[in-house]
Amino acid sequence: MNQPLPSSLDTLQTYWFAICQKMEKDIGEAAFKSWLKPLEVLDIQDGSVVISAPSHFMCDWVQTHYSDRIKAYWAEIFPNVTQIKILVNLPTATIKPFPNTSAVSQPDEEIEEDDNADVNAALDSRFTFENFVVGKPNELAYAAALRVAESDHPLFNPLFLYGGVGLGKTHLMHAIAWQIKKMHPQRKVIYMSAEKFMYQFIRALRFKDTVAFKERFRSVDVLMIDDVQFIGGKETTQEEFFHTFNALVDNNRQVIISADKSPADLLQMEERLKSRLGWGLVADIHPTTYELRLGILQAKAAAISTKIPKEVMEFLALKISSNIRELEGALNRIVAHATLVGRNVTLDTTQEVLRDLLRSNDRRITIEDVQKKVCEFYNIKMSDLLSGRRQQTITRPRQVAMYFSKTLTTKSLPEIGRKFGGKDHTTVLHAIKKVQENCTQDPEFSADIDILRRLLES
Ligand code: ADP
Ligand code: MG
Predict the structure, then answer these.
(1) Burial class (CB in 10 A: 0-12, 13-18, 19+), 359
(2) What pLDDT digit, counting tens, does each position of 36-77 carry?
(3) Which ligand 1 atom is nearest residue 134's CA?
């Protein structure tokens, strides 16, 4: 089926997003995060898709490892795509408008939205204030959310909630929506992910329906946009969001935003938008504490009326510290297992059932992991890394490996020196200083260090 060509960069980014989702399925989350997530699509011209990468290394790596697959996915959408061009950090100002010439096939289905879909249909009935366990890490966010939900005029505008994944941002936003429905049923509330906001906006653009789009958003009493970091780098969407935002705030309507970072730290977000987002109340949700995790487990177990031994709860709260989503998942798994096999939950069955999960929460990076990854990254031999050779192509990676051995493991300088073919601890110390120094002087080197850190931590 033929479709008119998309006419904006945002549209191109929507296709790219759909491709990225497929790529992530293909290559796994860790590789995806390290190599594809940092890329940006810039343009499509004469059968070439132009993509930018933040460093030369990344550019080469993606070119050799992933460009064929990326090309194939683009070609599914635009059959005339024959080439993927990867550039290093091309400034976004040079982006040209999308050419409006040939025909294309139907894009990924998820871009299509049902216009009449109830925006609130997405609310999860379990995500209420009653079901939210309050502890030190989330008390400010909780209090602010409750105040906003109960007030009939904006108290702080916007309310900006931020924190890492699985810490309860979406839960709090849904809770606000439920509470408003209960207390002020006449108020019009829209809750939406930033991603969906973008899809709908793009759709409105494509069908020349932007007036209705604007009308719909600007007539609400409360607008909640979840995961706003998603529109980082998506300039047209940001622009529209900024106007919607201002129109609502100027009309004394409440806006509530969530993100994974504070307004100032949001990446690729326009300055004026960042500053505007920080004008109201910014409330962060901190990583969980043991007490909070235990409290949440007790509440969840009570909610499903399942008796779980105290030592199992404590064990879970201690071991699964990454986020609340994983903690819930773990609890559900052991309960499901116990029900299926008709046995009580014990510490033994818990350890058995959660073996894989516990291992990944337990994972520690070793010096050997660091050495292996650094060799792969710089494409050098392990024997060279551990040798005394003084060529720059070897000494740089060696210094980097020593640096990460110190910063990502708990090993001492002499222990690290020994693992690098018996070097002195002063050599390790020098290496660490050198890497820190290079990071401040050489942006490309610094970008490589970032990539490596992500690779090692993923
Ligand atoms: P985020 O949006 O920050 O990634 P979610 O709001 O989706 O995280 O939370 C992940 C899961 O953890 C959800 O099932 C949510 O109900 C649960 N959860 C998070 N915080 C709490 C809390 N304080 N009390 C109870 N459940 C919580
Ligand atoms: Mg969320």
Answers:
(1) exposed
(2) 888 888 888 888 898 888 777 778 888 888 888 899 888 888
(3) 23
pLDDT for residue 342: 86
Q: 35 falls in which pLDDT band (50, 70, 90)? A: confident
pLDDT confidence bin for 96, thresholds 50/70/90? very low
Q: What are phi and psi of 76, to 5 degrees?
A: -65, -30
Tell which phi-psi region holds residue 379, choosing left (phi > 0), alpha (psi between -120 and 50) or beta.
left
Q: Do the beta carbons of residue 402 and residue 416 sit within 8 Å?
A: yes
Alpha-carbon span 152 to 222, nearest angstrom: 10
Per-residue pLDDT tens over the stretch 313-322 = 999 998 888 8
**For tokens 């989503």, what's the residue?**
325
C-beta neighbour count of 15 within 10 angstroms: 22
Q: Cα–Cα distance between 386 and 426 in angstroms, integer?
A: 16
Tokens encoding 414 = 């002499």
Query: Ligand 1: which of 129, 167, 289, 298 to mutate, most ligand atoms within 8 Å of CB?
Result: 167
Q: What is the pLDDT of residue 37?
A: 86
The residues placing their C-beta within 5 Å of ligand 2, an ion, are 169-170
Q: Determine if ligand 1 sits within 6 Å of the CB of residue 169.
A: yes
- Nearest to 262, CA basis, from 280, 284, 245, 232: 284
Under the banding of pLDDT at 50, 70 and 90, the label for residue 109 is very low
Say which residues have a Cβ less than 8 Å from residue 419's Cβ, sequence separation at least 6: 367, 368, 371, 405, 411
Please tell me the total number of residues recorded for the chain in this structure: 458
Cα-based distances in Å from 156 to 193, 221, 282, 327: 21, 14, 9, 32
26, pLDDT greater than 90: no
Residue of the nearest CA to atom 11 in ligand 1?
A: 325
DSSP category for residue 138 = G
pLDDT of residue 359: 73
Report the nearest atom of ligand 1 relative to the CA of 327. 12
Instruction: Provide the β-strand partners of residue 223.
Output: 190, 255
Please indicate whether residue 297, judged by its CB atom, sits closer than 6 Å to ligand 1: no
